[in-house]
Amino acid sequence: MHVIRLAIKNIRGSGFRSIAIFLAVMGVAGFLLGTTIIIEGARNSLRSGLERLGADILVVPEGAEVKIESALLMGKPVDAWMPRDNLQKIAQISGVAAISPQIYLKSMFDAPCCAVSEMFMVVYDPDTDFTISPWLEKNLGRPLVTGEVIGGTYVFASDGVDSIKLYGYQTRLVGTLQPTGTGIDQTLFMTLDTALDMSRSSVTTAMMPLNVNPDTISVIMVKTAEGVDPHRVAIQIRQETPGMVPIESPNLFGMFRDQMNGLLWGFFAITLVVWLVTMIIIGIVFSMAANERKREMAILRAIGATRFFIFRSLLTEAGLLAVGGAVLGIAVSAGTLYILKDMIAGSLKMPFLFPSIPAFIGLFSAGVALALGTVILSALIPALRLSRQELAVAMRE
Questions:
Q1: Are strands 118-124 and 96-109 parallel, antiparallel or unpaired?
Q2: Residue that wins the pLDDT comparison between 300 and 37
Q3: Residue 94: is it exposed, middle or buried by C-beta count within 10 angstroms (0-12/13-18/19+)?
């Protein structure tokens, strides 16, 4: 009899034991993949957000550091202002290669053109910008003109048209940025000319006019010269520009990093305990099954089956249960996380970017391999015992 066919018959003939092992593997595989996706999703989101910002240093008003980070990370509204004259002070710092200001406007709530409750609006300077302009050059082939906007992945134009009405002002959505899992996904970007035009129009077209002061800015994006240490430049900015605080890109989202590290260690500890308990349970189930199947294995030996055949059939049985349980557990876990990803990000107060297809395939394969290895190790000793038992002794029991 073929070893796989025998393993399938044994699985069908031992319903309770097979279901117990299947559910145990399904649960632990789903849990392991779920925790891994959450942690990796947060890391991917953070990395994508920092790449999209494209700045080595962010200069913010003193006291607004946490608010700015919250705005960039989760798209929360922020009220942070400093004089536009600060641009000249930063430009004179040794080692600064490029600077570009951004203005954070009042967020819009429950906007029909945004898939989330808040839409964050950011004004950038197209003459100096190095954050949005590279994307525009690559995908649009030109800068934005007055009245045009681009948005994050959650910003869209409704009813199949490309226009968005903001404060009664009609804008044209000309592009959507790739998802990052951060507040950038619910951000609408526009030039200062568009913002000023919208502000003037809102006096007569909106219930609450939009106030835009061109003499104030919210943050200064800084790119350091090649070969210059950004940390040294940040120290100079702190020493020579009172009232402004530099945030180095690697140190951005520090509070979130601490939260993520805490979650990482918590998930790791829980995962290790769950994995060990699952191995013990599966090992106990296989040991109990080994005691019950001594006579069955002895009969197989008596009709010509070798010890290696019996050993292979038992491990094949364990492997089939492991692969089946792992595939179903991972599929259920991944599907649930994908559907509830926004709710998870909101409840954990952390950004979340679902892995790409290649990355997910890698995680899926690793999860199945880990489940297979776990079950095989748990079944190894009982399988060896059964395959090495003395035929005459087993037949008498």
A1: antiparallel
A2: 37
A3: exposed
Q: How far apart are CA 223 and CA 95, in angstroms?
A: 9
Q: What angle do CA 315, 318, 323 make, to 5 degrees?
A: 120
* Contact present, 73 and 345 (Cβ < 8 Å): no
| Residue linked to tokens 């632990």 | 28
Instruction: Identify residue 116 by its one-letter amino acid code.
Output: V
pLDDT digits (tens, 9 = 90+) for 157-177: 766 667 888 888 888 888 888
Q: Which residue has the tokens 């034991």?
A: 17
Q: Over 50: is that where the pLDDT of 37 sits?
A: yes
As a whole number of angstroms, the distance between CA 64 and CA 62 comes to 6
CB 56 within 8 A of CB 249: yes
Task: Return the DSSP state at 159.
Answer: G
The set of residues, in sequence order, having a beta carbon less than 8 Å from that of 117 and lying 6+ positions away, is 109, 110
Over residues 40-57, the mean pLDDT reads 73
pLDDT in tens, 4-15: 776 777 777 676
Q: Residue 298 pLDDT more than 70?
A: no
Burial code (b: 16+ CB inside 10 Å, e: under 16) for 249-270 equals beebbeebeeebeebeeebeee
Give 5-70 as a DSSP string: HHHHHHHHH-HHHHHHHHHHHHHHHHHHHHHHHHHHHHHHHHHHHHHHH--SEEEEETT-HHHHHH
- CA dihedral sign of residues 304, 308, 309, 315: positive
Three-state DSSP at 98 gives strand
Token output for 372: 């297979």
Residue 219: strand pairing partners: 102
